[in-house]
Amino acid sequence: MTEFFGKRWHDMGGDPAGPITPEEHDFALWEKRVDALMVLTSAAGLMTTDSLRRVLEDMGADAYETMTYYERWIASIAQNMVEAGAVTTEELGAKMAEVRARGATYGAAS
Amino acid sequence: MKVRIKSHWPPGHIRTPAYLRGKIGQIERRIGLFNNPEETAYRQTGPQRELVRVRFRMADIWGARAERGEDVIEAEIYAHWLEPV
Amino acid sequence: MPHDHHDHEHDHSHDGLSPSGHPYRADNDTDLSYWQAMEIALRELLIEKGHLTAAQIHAQINAMDSRSPANGARVVARAWVDPEFKAALLADAGAASRAMGFDIGPMHLIALENTKEVHNVVVCTLCSCYPRNLLGLPPDWYKSRAYRSRTVIEPRKVLSEFGLELPEQMQVRVHDSTADMRYIVLPAQPEASLGLTEEELAAWVTRDSMIGVGLPQAPQ
Question: Where in this chain does the record put each Nitrile hydratase beta subunit domain (chain B) (predicted)?
């Protein structure tokens, strides 16, 4: 008999779960941009689908329950870009502050 | 060809689902060579690994809990996760 | 009788519209979140450093926008009317889709044929793998804990929650998309649709029937 000796949170097949709610939403522009960043940075060799997933898995179950899909993706892509040496955390911090200073909405900050 | 999925539990980015480890199935088709996600997840690139589709009877995975024993699951498993039966 | 035609039809009550009379763009007028700020910052940094261009991002968004279940529906409809195409699709679904003119990029695609004896359903228990380069982005429920956990252990119960009851004598095949392959179910052509043209048939093929949680149905 197999013991689940070290099964990780994301490895969900067969776990008990509740009803499936047929949720869907139209993707916002910022979400489509996140998706595009993943595809393009992977094509540029800066990350892979596997490194995207590895970082998502390492975020833990809490992130899955509290963050939206593309929130987790941008967090993963950002970490991947730092790991790749494409950006530094210092640069991200400065740029994010600059972005926020532009305005209070996504449109104003774009 | 009958195969068993290894009951190994390494840390890291593994694409062999826990519910299939230690289970016995049949090779449904061989797919060819692909990068090993266990390595590429960490920016390592070793030799490509063979990927195989394996078919499992629900009864062999879930036992008495299976809705219908002869329903099946098919999953892609890397060859280094297979052992002979 | 000439009609007085305006470029924009204004809802003069301004219900839900900006003062100019145009609908608000929901995304752009929401409060900037931490993660949205990260997206803007990361995108701009990567462009500044020459890793990407704004044009590439624009093109990729357009490419994904052009991918939708309608593409898969056309592939299925062709397989229903053309036995040679169906055989090619089952042998190499990626090549067959490309031959129809769809740009699916490097995606490896396998088509799973539903028959009188077999019903196929696709899930990714480990994350959210989906044939996005043909069907577009997956629905939220496909990525949910409940779908990912339950489909491999109680597929018939899951399908009945989607309104699909299968006879006991049919075999259910659950495909867990664990690695490099992506899957599209080739649903069986409904008897009521026999004799329709390929174009008419495409309207019968729903996204859910290509995931395997539904069957094709007459267009609404």
Answer: 2-84
Amino acid at C176: D
B31 touches chain A (CB under 8 A): no
Structure tokens at C52: 């990407």
* Tally of CB atoms within 10 A around B61: 24
Chains sharing 3 or more CB pairs under 8 A with chain C: A, B
Cβ neighbours of residue C44 closer than 8 Å, sequence gap 6 or more: A95, A99
A6 Cβ under 8 Å from any chain B Cβ: yes
- Which residue type occupies C181? M
* pLDDT in 10s for each residue of chain B, 85 residues: 999 999 999 999 999 999 999 999 999 999 999 999 999 999 999 999 999 999 999 999 999 999 999 999 999 999 999 999 9
| Dihedral sign from CA coordinates of C113, C68, A74, B43 | positive
Question: From CA C176, how far away is CA A13, in angstroms rounded?
Answer: 9
Active-site annotation holds for C128: yes
pLDDT surpasses 60 at A55: yes
Q: Where are the alpha helices (DSSP H) in B1-85?
A: 37-40, 58-62
> Do B42 and A5 count as a contact with CB atoms less than 8 A apart?
no
Among this protein's residues, is C33 annotated catalytic?
no
Cβ-contact A102, A109 below 8 angstroms: yes
